[in-house]
Amino acid sequence: MGSNGKKTIVVTRFDPDRDEVPRTQSYEVPVQSDWQVLDALNFIKDEIDPSLSYRWSCRMAVCGSCGMMVNGEAKLSCKDPLSKYGDTVEVTPLANFPVIRDLVVETEGFLERVQRVKPWIIRAKEKAVEEGPVRQSPRELADFSQFSMCINCMLCYSACPVVGNEPHFLGPAAIALGHRYNLDSRDEGADERYQIFREEGGVYACTYANECSEVCPKNVDPAAAVNQAKVGAVLDWAKGLILPRGGEG
Amino acid sequence: MARAAHPETMGPRRPGPTRTAPPMMPPKFPMAGRYRSYTLFGACSPAFVISSLILLRITWALGDGEAAWSEVLRDLRHPLSLLYHGVALVAFLYTGWRFFIKLFGKSQPPRIGPFRPPPAAAFPPMLIAAWVVASAAVTAVAWGLVL
């Protein structure tokens, strides 16, 4: 835990009351060898410049708050060792998001997308309590458990080139979440979600850059979810064409 | 320096009370880091369009008499055509490697009706085997060994 000399942390600053456009500011930080990028930002905030704004909470890659671009890569700053970078480290807000202040981005658009895919269990008819719980086997759980590990850190949105060019795109995390419920054996709402997936900006907007999966800190593999959802959406559409009453009831 | 993203990217439907700085594209897009592979993948698409048009012309010539067929064969032997087909072969191999070997396996849903697809790791050897067999069959037909 010894000192590792000094590093220059170049941080993007933006004050909506003062700045027309974002600017950069450099800070000399005496770093420890076991520090993460977040530790350097906390040092700046505590010791050099209390006006620096950024989000963080758990410091253990669980809450998903501290996502930012570090040397051009989307990272959780609490899980990104400073030691792997050179003497200068550039920290900028998450790409593809409007910036509210410094490293704080607007998350409302993301939350709207997540809500659109109906991320909850939909049942045609709820079982009465007396009928007991809806059971699920370990194998059925394994079908979707990987996609339920998402912590909503938005790194996948920040890395996706389609998100930056197609403003209506649902995006990787929201589609992965919807797909997670479609695969859940307790859920009966796949038809509704596939309808949403087939709309403009749905799953077919994805061009499989695979960057979302590369940057995902929890190995959710959203690119796999999106492309599995493409197959599911086609099969659901074909079922509606072939089966009587579109396969309903 | 990153270029600007679409101005409405990831913005809320109703703008909030605070003025925001516009979203920027990922700084390494399109030609640095892993994006290079993706950009190259997209850049291969003209080869598919051009080759499809060539295939259409060949098919058309088949029903257009011997003179038309001879003309197509002569065109295909032109040095520029040979050069193009060399480039197209590289483009097809790269596209096939990236899509079928790297990405195809994990794109399979865990279940299609009552069936489960093979594990993702099984796809590359299966697809390579299928490609070798199909290529050998086409070569055998083209060489006049069968049919």
Structural descriptors:
heterodimer; A: 249 residues; alpha+beta; Ubiquitin-like (UB roll); Fumarate Reductase Iron-sulfur Protein, Chain B, domain 2; 2 domains; five-stranded mixed sheet; 34% helix; B: 147 residues; mainly alpha
Describe the oligomeric state of these chains in a short phrase: heterodimer
The biggest sheet of chain B amounts to: none
Question: How would you classify the helix and strand content of chain B by structural class?
Answer: mainly alpha
Q: Proportion of β residues of chain A?
A: 15-25%
Provide the low-confidence segments of chain B as ranges.
none
How many beta-strand runs of chain A? 7
How is this structure best described in words?
The complex is a heterodimer of chains A (249) and B (147). Chain A is of the alpha+beta class. Chain A is built from 9 helices and 7 strands; from the N terminus they run ββαβββββαααααααα. In chain A, 45% of the residues are buried. Chain A has helices at 37-48, 108-116, 138-144, 155-159, 161-165, 172-182, 190-198, 211-215, 222-242; strands at residues 3-13, 23-32, 67-70, 73-76, 88-92, 99-101, 104-105. Chain A has 2 domains: 3-105, Roll (Ubiquitin-like (UB roll)), CATH 3.10.20; 108-247, Fumarate Reductase Iron-sulfur Protein, Chain B, domain 2. Chain A starts with a strand and ends in a 7-residue tail after the last helix. Helices cover 34% and strands 16% of the residues of chain A. The model of chain A has no long low-confidence stretch (mean pLDDT 95). In chain A, helix 2 (108-116) runs parallel beside helix 6, helix 6 packs across helix 9 and helix 7 (190-198) packs across helix 9 (222-242). Chain A is elongated. Chain B is mainly alpha-helical and 147 residues long. Chain B has one domain: Fumarate reductase/succinate dehydrogenase, transmembrane subunit (3 helical TM bundles of succinate and fumarate reductases, Up-down Bundle), CATH 1.20.1300.10. Chain B is 56% helix and 0% strand. Chain B has 5 helices and no strands. In chain B, helix 2 (45-62) runs antiparallel to helix 3 and helix 2 crosses helix 4. The longest helix of chain B has 25 residues, at 79-103. The relative contact order of chain B is 0.06. Chain A binds chain B through residues 14, 16, 19, 21-22, 69, 72-74, 92, 95-101, 105-106, 108-110, 112, 143-144, 157-161, 163-167, 183, 207-211, 214, 221, 223-224, 227-228, 230-232, 235, and chain B through 2, 5-6, 8-13, 16, 18-30, 32-35, 38, 42, 99, 102-103, 106-112.
